[in-house]
């Protein structure tokens, strides 16, 4: 696609080479794998937007059968380079459709704000419906996402310096559209006389909106935490880990 257009694979295709080294990437994969394993048992589990396998690989190494979906072949190539990455079945495509063999799944999960990569409410609602159709009875859909903080923006814009050295600078530039609940951003790296940009677009949603999407899909909120460590979620939490359940048929 033209570089001016943004699609499901854009983020992954552009950032795959450096994804595992980006500053904003949390080092929570061990906690995430432990949390998910407690729900999945031996599985099977399905990760939406599996990327380079940051969470999926340790989860699989812990004995859970893991499958994945991702739109970016560049990210999947990086997954395949890692020990254990070749053994994880991955479907290439937009995870809004949630079409993956190997189900029904005990757990379906999406981490690190990846759910917000679905850029319309319609796509997010469709994803919840697809998840519900691929979960086994009493199965869980786990969503890790940030809590929107609109105070970070001044008149709809934000500029932040994330790294500044003699020969290198990193900037985060973002624009907010509160009517569409959309954040358009660029991570800019200035180094050795070159400029590299990593574009990101997100459609954020509040927990209450996610809960409604779940209800429309026939799921219900089982629990919500401020992180993988199961600390209580509250007004000051910067993120949430929400667990939705597919009720068992009576």
Describe this structure in words.
The chain has 250 residues and is of the alpha/beta class. Helices cover 23% and strands 32% of the residues. The chain has six helices and eleven strands. The strands form two sheets. The chain has a seven-stranded mixed beta sheet with strand order 3-2-1-4-5-11-10. The chain has a four-stranded antiparallel beta sheet with strand order 6-7-8-9. Helix 4 links the parallel strand 2 and strand 3. The longest helix is centred in the middle third of the chain and has 14 residues. The chain is globular. The termini are far apart. The mean pLDDT is 93.
Could you tell me the mean pLDDT? Answer: 93
Q: List low-pLDDT spans.
A: none
Q: Element order, helices and strands?
A: HHEHEHEEHEEEEEHEE
**Estimated helix fraction:** 10-25%
Rg estimate, integer Å? 18 Å
Basic shape: globular
| Structure annotation, total helices | 6
Derived from helix and strand composition plus strand pairing, the structural class reads alpha/beta
What's the main sheet like?
A: 7 strands, mixed
- Tally of DSSP β-strands: 11
Strand content: 25-35%
Largest sheet strand order: 3-2-1-4-5-11-10
Distance between the termini: 48 Å
Sequence-ordered SSE layout with sheet pairings:
Blueprint: H1 10-15, H2 29-40, E1 45-48, H3 56-61, E2 66-70, H4 73-81, E3 90-92, E4 105-110, H5 121-134, E5 135-146, E6 157-164, E7 168-177, E8 182-191, E9 194-203, H6 207-216, E10 220-225, E11 239-245
What's the quick description here?
The chain is of the alpha/beta class and 250 residues long. The protein contains six helices and eleven strands.
């Amino acid at each position: 696609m033209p570089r001016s257009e943004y699609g499901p694979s854009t983020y992954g295709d552009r950032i795959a080479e450096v994804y595992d080294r980006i500053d904003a990437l949390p080092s929570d994969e061990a906690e995430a794998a432990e949390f998910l394993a407690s729900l999945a048992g031996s599985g099977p589990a399905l990760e939406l937007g599996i990327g380079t396998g940051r969470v999926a690989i340790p989860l699989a190494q812990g004995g859970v059968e893991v499958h994945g979906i991702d739109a970016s072949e560049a990210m999947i190539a990086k997954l395949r380079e890692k020990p254990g990455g070749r053994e994880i079945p991955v479907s290439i495509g937009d995870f809004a459709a949630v079409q993956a063999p190997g189900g029904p799944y005990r757990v379906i999960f999406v981490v690190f704000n990846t759910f917000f990569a679905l850029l319309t409410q319609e796509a997010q609602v469709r994803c919840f419906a697809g998840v519900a159709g691929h979960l086994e009875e009493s199965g869980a859909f786990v969503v890790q996402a940030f809590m929107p903080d609109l105070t970070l923006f001044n008149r709809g814009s934000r500029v932040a310096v994330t790294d500044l050295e003699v020969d290198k600078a990193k900037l985060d530039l973002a624009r907010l559209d509160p009517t569409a609940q959309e954040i358009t951003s660029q991570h800019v790296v200035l180094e050795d006389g070159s400029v590299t940009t990593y574009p990101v677009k997100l459609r954020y949603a509040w927990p209450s909106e996610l809960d409604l999407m779940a209800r429309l899909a026939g799921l219900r909120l089982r629990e919500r935490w401020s992180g993988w460590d199961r600390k209580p979620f509250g007004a000051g939490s910067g993120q949430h880990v929400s667990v939705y359940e597919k009720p068992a048929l009576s």
